[in-house]
Design goal:
The protein has one domain: Ferritin, core subunit, four-helix bundle (Ferritin), CATH 1.20.1260. Helices cover about 85% and strands about 0% of the residues. It is built from 5 helices and no strands. Helix 1 (about 1-15) packs antiparallel against helix 2, helix 1 packs antiparallel against helix 4 (about 70-95) and helix 4 packs antiparallel against helix 5.
């Protein structure tokens, strides 16, 4: 959910087209992943959070206060870090998770997360080069 909200913010506040485009991709792809996860959770009678975590809200507030190149740099840095962490969590679930459906979800979503990470790193290189 946080990725979707930050993606919307990037589309509004991003100063480079690559940041705006990356934000749009986050909204589209993470909304789809969230729907799949919600369906899986519902099938297991698991209640998911209804909004972003406190840490995610704080990050949103920090980014919302920035503009221009400072926003672009902070946003894409957060996206690289977040996708690195998510990829590691998915790999951990795949190797040591107890629920076969959750493991399958992790396996299905990992290629997208790794693709996002690769793209985030490419955008980060562009944004840093524009300093």
């Amino acid at each position: 959910m946080a990725e979707v909200e930050l993606g919307k913010l990037a589309q509004e506040k991003g100063s480079s087209q690559s940041v705006k485009d990356f934000g749009a991709m986050m909204v589209k792809d993470h909304s789809a992943a969230n729907e799949k996860l919600e369906s899986l959770a519902a099938s297991k009678n698991i209640t998911l959070p209804t909004g972003p975590s406190a840490a995610s809200k704080a990050e949103h507030a920090k980014l919302e206060a920035l503009s221009g190149a400072a926003f672009d740099q902070a946003y894409i840095k957060a996206m690289v870090k977040g996708h690195e962490q998510t990829a590691e969590l998915l790999k951990k679930e795949m190797s040591s998770g107890q629920d076969e459906d959750a493991k399958a979800f992790a396996q299905s979503i990992l290629p997208t997360v790794e693709s996002h990470l690769k793209e985030a790193r490419a955008v980060e290189s562009q944004v840093v080069a524009q300093r």
